[in-house]
Amino acid sequence: MTSYHNTFPASDLDDNSNKAIVINGKSILICNSGGDYYAIENMCTHQRAELEGGRIRNCFISCPLHGVRFNLETGKPMGQMTNIPLTTYPIKVSDDGIIQVEL
Ligand code: FES
Question: Does the C-beta of 23 come closer than 6 Å to ligand 1?
């Protein structure tokens, strides 16, 4: 059964930044791109590097290891290095400003 999990205040995450958290034993990366929030698996589908710290621009995150760019909304990669999308998770901000992720 899936349910929304409280994470941390949205005000803690600056624009174009990301932060990894663990929910139910899974590492999930919460991202802020232009004030919109996204939740993705924190594991690149190319060679399994962590995506935390990757550069975010215009709804894409770049893997810190070899630079594959993934769409934060769909998880789809760009380019030739991998065609496996990231898992994405529903995300919302509660009335009191807490980011919540559905898992
Ligand atoms: S491990 Fe992410 S691009 Fe290679």
Answer: no
The CB of 46 under 6 Å from ligand 1? The reply is yes
With CA atoms as reference, report the closest residue to 44 among 15, 9, 79.
79
In the chain, the domains with their CATH numbers are 4-102 (2.102.10.10)
How many of the other CB atoms lie within 10 Å of CB of 83? Answer: 10
Compute the distance between CA of residue 77 and CA of residue 84 in angstroms, rounded to an integer. Answer: 7
C-alpha–C-alpha distance, residues 74 and 86, integer Å: 8
44 lines ligand 1 (CB under 6 A): yes
Model confidence, pTM: 0.96
pLDDT at 1: 72
